[in-house]
Write a structure and sequence with these properties.
By secondary structure, the protein is of the alpha/beta class. Helices cover 42% and strands 15% of the residues. The chain has 12 helices and 11 strands. Strands 3-4-5-8-9-10-11 form a 7-stranded parallel β-sheet, covered by helices on one side. A two-stranded antiparallel ribbon has the order 1-2. Strand 1 (3-5) and strand 2 (12-14) form a beta hairpin. Helix 1 packs parallel to helix 11 (262-270). The radius of gyration is 18 Å and the shape is globular.
Length: 292
Amino acid sequence: MESKKLGKTDTKISAIGLGGMPLSLSGRPEQEEAIAVIHHALDLGVTLIDTADSYCVDESDKHHNEKLIATALDKYQGDTSQVVIATKGGLMRPQGSWTRDGSPEHLRQTIRQSHKALGGERPIDVWQYHSPDPEYLISESLTPVKEAVEEGLIRYVGVSNFSVAQIKQAQEIVEIVSVQNQYNPWQRQPENDGVLEYCEQEGLTFFPWSPLGGSRRVNLLKNIPVINEIAQEKGISVYQVVLAWLRSKSPCIVPIPGASKISSIEDSVASVNVQLSPDEIQRFEQGAAQVA
């Protein structure tokens, strides 16, 4: 598996990560099946797993995904010393909906709960502020995060769903190594709002969430002629074409596709060996734009 640096640090992560969310939301697989998916990802060389305190069914189920990952790592027979777990905090799940809580009190509490859920024996590898809460200044929300870094509870800090201006505000409070925003062929805002360019300039890793366009797009991918044609020409899946396109857009991009089946993570990891030519990239983008 190809590896990349996490931000400007000396920590290496796999060029394709595993998004843990599908393993913990409604309709999730049984625990043993979920653990098998995580184990297979590790077998394939994946060393980055993305999670969040809010990857769960509702508030009564909070931290489910973090606990699942901790259990999977504990049961894994191989070496897990190089595995990097990137979690997030700041979103709530009342009755299964998504709401924000960026209050210092909440973030201070959830960081400690995430630390415990992930095993509590070492610092959280990467803690990301999930989405800025307009009720609080970014400096207010990130103050307990900075404190947690100083206490040794967090190793690295990232942000999610942030604009360039907000990233700069965060950097005034604590060192940032990564940004996680939505980015796929149909949601290309990071190209247009300067976030991707800023990550390149600052040496930040960019994690595109919803890399395949969400559940609706995933189901339609095989019906998009150009993407299907490129996939057939190269003898790969349409999903690998999309992930290869993402990786072609910037060297700082590390896709984190979700998976709830072993076959899904196998397919995603195989995309690391796929390269698209300039002509294929142009065809891909023109075809994707027609079904935006």
